[in-house]
Amino acid sequence: MAKPQRDGWSGARARLRGGLVAVEMALCVAVLACTGLLVRSVGNLQSVDPGFSPEGVLVQRMSMPGDRYGSRAEIEAARGRIDERVRAIPGVRAVAFANLYPFSGTNWEMLFRDPETWPAQEAPSVLYTAATTDYFEVFSIDLVRGRLFTDADRRDAPPVVIVDETAAELAWPGEDPIGKRVSVDDVLVDGEYVPLWRTVVGVVPHVRNYDLAQVSRIEAYVPLAQSGGCCRTTWLAVKSEGAAEGLAREVRAAVNEVDPSIPLYRVDSMRSVLQRETGLHRAVRGLFVCFGLLALILAMVGVYGVVSALATRRAREIGVRMALGATPGDAARTVAAGGVWWIALGLFPGLIAAVAGGRAMGALLVGVAPWDPLVLGGTSVLLLLTAAAAAWVPSRRMASIGPAGVLKGE
To answer: Residue 119, exposed/middle/buried by CB under 10 A (0-12, 13-18, 19+)?
Structure first.
């Protein structure tokens, strides 16, 4: 009887094939793990509470022509007429004007000055929002403590401010912020700008204004009527009972009734605004899903091919083993084990590469660590099971031929 061939992996070519399988496995683990991290990250991002509700909110930029509205009184009068016309549209629940809104891309930063808490030179920056009374209703921002703005907060009334919870905790930890005095803007007095001291009348939840993945800076809200300058250019925000997109034409018509020379631009729904904020994360996730599936398919094809070659090289040995009493299952496991060994060998470096890749794309990860055990463990199990299945198919096929068939074929 001829002497059985040596182990099918003993030659240089066989080791090279096995090494290529290990490299394929490592790359596949890295790509699949990064895909898993991004899938979890996008899920976390979409579940983040931005601090407001985008439902039914339409926003648009509005600019009052300087040649027609030269004074603050003229601007406020026109704004009041627009407010009245827009509110008359069926389905409109609330209307507000503001210098910015969440994720508007507009940045108004001022100093949050409180001499009892920190020196003026150490005052933190604050996001400064000047808005009309219904701003909080439009964006469904709840009141935590105190009160919201009212029509009584006119320009000639005592200056007031509403702060978010983050600002209140930063400035007055453990204290009641209502009634505290703080400055978030300046006023011109005798040719010199001096801090305008305002009384805190309310506290609202923190709103994420720039990035859903990160907590924004502290925020302070002042009545638009009490803000500095005349705010010729503002955002018009409308809250409707139904879909916001259907309001755009009617809002445009309402503004035209007041003055057709007032332009409205950058018209958008808040739902679309938030979807764009997650767009990059979703696009990268989709790209990695495609790469991950491709890597998995190529890896499985590689495993199948290498194990098939191994089975062919060890055909005589398999036939002899089966002739001596080995079962088809034993023979299949013998062949498959050689392939699974190389698969497992590529797993560890693949996990290291996956963690490194997760660190590299850290800016895209939300609420998940690059070494997340659920993702890495799930990826490893998925790859091992799939690779084992790919290795088992040619092994089982060879073993099912039987010793006579194997030796005859050999």
So the answer is: exposed
What pLDDT, in 10s, does the model give residues 325-337? 556 566 666 666 6
**Residue of 269, 307, 289, 403 lying closest to 42 (CA atoms):** 289
Amino acid sitting at position 173: P
Amino acid at 325: G
Lowest mean pLDDT among 44-53, 73-82, 249-258: 44-53
Cβ-proximal residues to 309 (8 Å cutoff; 6+ apart), any chain: 8, 14, 17
State both tokens at 222.
């002042």
* Residue 278 in tokens: 């997650």
Q: How confident is the model over 307-354, as pLDDT tens digits?
A: 666 666 665 666 666 555 556 566 666 666 666 677 777 888 888 888
Task: Tell me the backbone φ, ψ of residue 164, rounded to 5 degrees.
Answer: -90, 170
Q: Which is nearest to 131 in space by CA: 204, 187, 212? A: 204
Interval 362-404: pLDDT, tens: 777 777 888 888 888 888 888 778 777 776 766 666 555 555 5
Structure tokens at 143: 């009141």
Ranges of H-type helices in 95-171: 135-138, 165-171
Sequence letter at residue 83: D
pTM (predicted TM-score): 0.74
Top mean-pLDDT range of 52-61, 98-107, 221-230, 359-368: 52-61
Query: In Å, what is the CA distance from 323 to each residue of 6, 68, 399, 409?
Result: 18, 102, 12, 14
Neighbours of 27 (CB within 10 A): 18
- Collect all residues with Cβ–Cβ distance below 8 Å to 305 and sequence separation of at least 6: none
- Counting runs of H as helices and runs of E as strands, what totals does the chain give? 11, 11
Which residues, in sequence order, are CB contacts of 198 under 8 Å at separation 6+? Answer: 159, 160, 161, 181, 182, 183, 184, 222
State the amino acid at position 93 in one-letter form.
R
With a CB cutoff of 8 Å and minimum separation 6, the contacts of 7 are: 314, 338
